[in-house]
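Late entry, evening session. Most of the bench is empty. Finally got around to the prediction I had been postponing all week. Sequence below, unchanged from the version circulated by S.P.
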Amino acid sequence: MVSIVDLLNRIRWDKEFGKGEFVIGYENHMLDHYVYVPFEEILFEEGDHFSFQLKNEMDELITIPFHRVREVLKGNEIIWQRPKHAP
């Protein structure tokens, strides 16, 4: 399986593949559920290979580590999903 970093970079830089509406689903530990954000709302800081940023509902910049991303959708189709660990 392709890594989440490689997939996000492909969405960013491969013009043909990057066409369409992408949504990133990440795990919010505080709310104990997944949060889904449009790819266009994600900010990538140059040189940061571990996380991305986005603004929350209070317009504050928050950092989301890549390891908290659980799935990526293109349209309504899941194109990437982190494997679930057995309990």
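Two things to note before I forget:
The chain has one domain: 4-81.
The radius of gyration is 13 Å.
Will write this up properly tomorrow.
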